[in-house]
Amino acid sequence: MYEVAIRPRLTRADVEALVRAHLGADLEFTAHEEFKDGFFNAAHALEIADGRHVVVKVAPDKDLKFLRYEVDLMATEIECFERGLAAGVPMPKLWAADPDAGVMIIDRLAGVPLPKVRAEIPADQLLALRKEIGAAAAKYATVTGEHFGYPRRSGRTMAATWSESFLAMTGDVLDDIEENGSPLPRPAAEFRALFAAERDLLDEVTRPALVHFDLWDGNIFVKRDGARWALEAFIDGERAFYGDPIAELVSLQMVPEEEFPAAVDGFLGRPLTAAEERRLALYRTYIMLILAAECKVRGFDPQQEANQMKWATDTLERDFTALRG
């Protein structure tokens, strides 16, 4: 297990040295800010004297203990950025990427995370924004991978079929949960059986599409466009994998119930089919297992851990019951 100390501790001088190493040895800097709300990568903003504003992300030391899916997360995020940007997904410009060193440098966005301004956005504009977000997120799915699974170098979850890959992914997080002693509403073996019973449904997916899998509102930046709010960009990409495009809707669904259909309309241009609804419940179960596993290792304060565990276990029980019913 690990705690919040997994996040690298870097001084301003450390961060400036990284930028000089990647963008130019003679660069000068006029401002610095550390983002302290993350629990995994270090993130620092620097203002360069030439007018550029960049964010530097640095991965934790490779020798630390991670959840199984977290190995090579920086390499995964870099691939998500490179391929997403090439497909026209709105993301910050990628100035430099070093997956071996666990460093990436991106533009600092001008807008703000959606939760900070949500209360200012009229209801009709918010629905239009949800549709815009769904349509932009769908561009990830235009990218095709060589295999299903996480693009990690070990190939641990890569497979030729989506069922084989997804069972490996869910098996990994259930192994983490059993090792860490995270409480679940049902035994891990019942979740393994639940996923295994859905092989045929999963194998209706035959193309490994890129899935960001972390498009909750905190990773969505918006900015004013005249009298309205518009999507600026998506950030992060650490949880990305190649799989079913419908999995992208898991995080887009983490909004008030009445807003989700607009996101689906933007993403698909039609309602979900019954099979897609069922697969979505499987992917929602997977992310909730990840959130449960995190609680034992992230170093959350007690209230945050309690809130996340309740959300995860309540959702797991609801979807398990519905899927088995």
TrEMBL record:
What residue stretches are annotated with the Aminoglycoside phosphotransferase domain?
35-281
The cross-references to PANTHER family, in alphabetical order and at most eight, read: AMINOGLYCOSIDE PHOSPHOTRANSFERASE DOMAIN-CONTAINING PROTEIN (PTHR21310:SF15), AMINOGLYCOSIDE PHOSPHOTRANSFERASE-RELATED-RELATED (PTHR21310)
Task: Tell me the keywords, alphabetical order.
Answer: Transferase
Provenance organism: Glycomyces terrestris
Spell out the InterPro entries in the cross-references.
Answer: AGP_Transferase, Aminoglycoside_PTrfase, Kinase-like_dom_sf
Molecular function terms, GO-annotated: transferase activity
Q: Where are the transmembrane segments?
A: none
In terms of SUPFAM superfamilies, this protein maps to: Protein kinase-like (PK-like) (SSF56112)
Kindly give the Pfam families that the UniProt entry links to this protein.
APH
What protein does this entry describe? Aminoglycoside phosphotransferase family protein
